[in-house]
Structures are given as C-alpha cells and as structure tokens.
Amino acid sequence: MYSDFSSSLKLLSHALNISYRVGQIFVKQQNSILFKTFF
Fold first, then answer.
1. Which of 4, 9, 22, 34 keeps 20 to 30 A from 15, CA to CA?
2. Within a 10 A sphere around the Cβ of 3, how many other Cβ atoms?
3. Would the pTM count as exceeding 0.85?
4. 16-25: long-range contacts, CB 8 A cutoff, minimum separation 24
5. Which tens digits make up the pLDDT trace of 1-39?
6. For 22, how many CA atoms within 13 A lie in the half-sphere containing its CB?
7. DSSP secondary structure code for residue 5 in this structure
C-alpha cells in the first residue's frame, strides 16, 4: 500500500515537472511570436 502511494506520488511529480517544462517552452514560443508580430 505504502509503496504504491510512493510510486504514484513520484509519477505525479514527474508528470508535473514535464508539463511545467512544456508550459515554459510554450510561453517562450508565444512571447517570441508576439515579439515578432509587434516589432
């Protein structure tokens, strides 16, 4: 039971980390697109 909870917690944090990085990349791309559009 405890090991299941621990592994699922690790999986969750891993998924959050990945989604955070993807979000950062997406925001950078959006910013560069906006920058090119306005300047």
1. 34
2. 7
3. no
4. none
5. 678 999 999 999 999 999 999 999 988 988 887 777 765
6. 6
7. H
